Amino acid sequence: MGMANAPLRTIEDFRDIESLNHYAQELRAGRKPEDILPGLRAMGRDNARTPMQWDASPQAGFTTGTPWLPVNPDHTEINAAAARTDPDSVYHHYRRLIALRHSEPAVVHGDFTMLLPDDERIYAFTRRHGSTTLLVAGNFTGETVDVALPDGWEGAELVLGNGPSVPAPPGRLVLAPWEARVHRQML
User: Fold this and answer.
1) Which of 7, 22, 94, 125 is the one with CA 20 to 30 A from 185?
2) Among candidates 37, 181, 36, 25, which has minimal Cα distance to 100?
3) Phi and psi dihedrals of 157, rounded to 5?
């Protein structure tokens, strides 16, 4: 659905015992709270434990009581009800991914070949099954990334993407921040 990390402001907002223990250990080692909290906000497990944001109502439609972690204030915009009405939402993107898995045997049965294994920005691979080959590429950064296309992929059919594609020079693949694409070639 694309829920974002909650704005956990102080250590009192955390419940995860691992985060609390890490915080206490770092304090004992002489670190300041303002130096410890950014790491906990980014990597702490409580981000995945906030109440499910079903709708824009109080407590995000999760409960009429008080949840053990606060509801993210962005629940009025980011919630399941809103995602179902937005054809470009993460929800609908995953529906399209699931449909591709059911309709394209290469997704399940294709031979896997890793591309760009040393590139820390792009995760890319091919899946080949019968006469069909899929090229999957994802940009895992907040920056636009330009990489060389594998030979023979220029002009391949775009099967699925999570946003408008960035124009690329011949022989190149340009991915916008956080963009992922699936291209298909038929032999």
Assistant:
1) 94
2) 181
3) -65, 130
Q: Tell me how far apart the alpha carbons of residues 155 and 185 are, in angstroms, rounded to a whole number.
A: 9
Residues 119 and 141: their CA atoms lie apart, in Å, by: 11
CB 110 within 8 A of CB 134: yes
User: 136: which strand partners?
Assistant: 125, 182
Q: Where are the alpha helices (DSSP H) in the chain?
A: 17-28, 33-43, 80-85, 90-103, 105-109
pLDDT digits (tens, 9 = 90+) for 36-91: 999 999 888 998 889 999 999 999 999 999 998 889 999 999 999 999 999 989 89
Q: Could you tell me the pTM of the whole model?
A: 0.78
How many CB atoms within 10 Å of residue 158? Answer: 11
* Widest Cα–Cα separation across the chain: 63
107, 134 Cβ separation under 8 angstroms? yes
